[in-house]
Specification:
alpha/beta, 6 helices, 16% strand, disulfide bond, zinc ion binding
C-alpha cells in the first residue's frame, strides 16, 4: 500500500510539474506568488482566450515585473476577494510570461465566461502605447505551447476583454492588433451566457 501511495504521489508531481513544461513561464514560486485560497478547475482544452491589460504603468525589468504581479495578486485577493490573481498569465514589458492562475484553474469565478476561458493580461496601458514585438511573440509562443500541451483547443478563439464587459481593456492599440488575427472572434454572445 505504501508503494502505491508513493507511486501516485510521483505521478502527481510529474503531472503537476509538466503543466507549464517547456512554455518558458515564470512560475508563481519564482515571482513569490501566494497560494490560491480556493481552486476550481477549467474544462480543457479551453476554446476561448481573453486578452486584457492592467491599465497600470508598464514594468520593464524582471524585478519590477515580479513586484507588479505580486501587487496585482495582493489587490485581487485582499481587496476584490478573488481566490487568486485574476489572470491565467501576465506578460510584462520585459516580454516574460508570468504564471497567474495557470492553465488549469478558473481565474475569476464571478463572470460566467471565466469558466470557459483563459485570461491573458499585458502589464501596462495599451490605449496609447503599442505592445512590443517581443511581448506579442511571447503571447504567440504561450498560445502555441498551450495547444501542443492540450490546454488550448487547436481552434481556440481570441477576444478582447472589452467585448465581454464595459471596459477599455485591452487598450485601443492592443485591441486593434488582435482584431487582425485569424483566431479573432467577433461575436461573443455565446460566451456571455
Amino acid at each position: 500500500m505504501e508503494n502505491l501511495f508513493c507511486f501516485v504521489c510521483m505521478l502527481f508531481i510529474i503531472k503537476y510539474g509538466a503543466v507549464n513544461a517547456d512554455c518558458g513561464i515564470v512560475s508563481k514560486d519564482d515571482w513569490d506568488g501566494l497560494t490560491p485560497v480556493h481552486v476550481e478547475y477549467l474544462n480543457r482544452p479551453v476554446q476561448l482566450v481573453i486578452i486584457q491589460h492592467t491599465d497600470t504603468p508598464p514594468c520593464l525589468t524582471d524585478n519590477a515585473c515580479s513586484a507588479r504581479v505580486r501587487s496585482i495578486q495582493d489587490y485581487h485577493m485582499d481587496t476584490l476577494k478573488y481566490w487568486d490573481i485574476g489572470s491565467a498569465f501576465l506578460i510584462g514589458g520585459n516580454a516574460k510570461v508570468y504564471e497567474g492562475s495557470g492553465w488549469v484553474h478558473v481565474s475569476v469565478p464571478t463572470h460566467v465566461y471565466n469558466r470557459k476561458a483563459l485570461r491573458i493580461t499585458f502589464i501596462g496601458n495599451y490605449n496609447s502605447h503599442q505592445p512590443t514585438t517581443e511581448q506579442i511573440d511571447a503571447l504567440k509562443s504561450l498560445l502555441r505551447c498551450g495547444v501542443s500541451n492540450g490546454h488550448l483547443d487547436s481552434n481556440y478563439k481570441i477576444v478582447g476583454h472589452r467585448q465581454l464587459m464595459a471596459t477599455d481593456s485591452p487598450g485601443r492599440k492592443l485591441y486593434n492588433l488582435i482584431r487582425r488575427w485569424p483566431e479573432w472572434l467577433e461575436n461573443v454572445d455565446s460566451y456571455k451566457q
